[in-house]
Design brief:
alpha+beta, about 20% helix
């Protein structure tokens, strides 16, 4: 499992366009927003046929998106190789 949290920057007047776009990106779920600061908080989770990395790149290149900051990332890949 891979999961990440992003802060997406956009102008408040563009939030509707950005929200519509985010709903189309695999694994992306909007968690909150602040129109005052121009930020939308989303989580991204990998799934069948897409990766977190692909979805983050797609969000970054989305219409009216001014920038994306990675706030958190977690992966459990390789944990089975660790000794207890």
């Amino acid at each position: 499992m891979n999961i990440a949290s992003l802060v997406v920057r956009a102008k408040p007047e563009d939030f509707a366009i950005v929200h519509d776009f985010l709903q189309q990106v695999p694994g992306v779920e909007v968690q909150g927003e602040s129109r005052e600061t121009g930020r939308i908080v989303v989580t991204v989770e990998d799934g069948e046929g897409w990766s977190v990395t692909d979805s983050i790149l797609k969000v970054n290149l989305g219409p009216r998106v001014q920038g994306v900051t990675l706030a958190y990332e977690y992966t459990d890949e390789g944990l089975e190789n660790l000794e207890a």
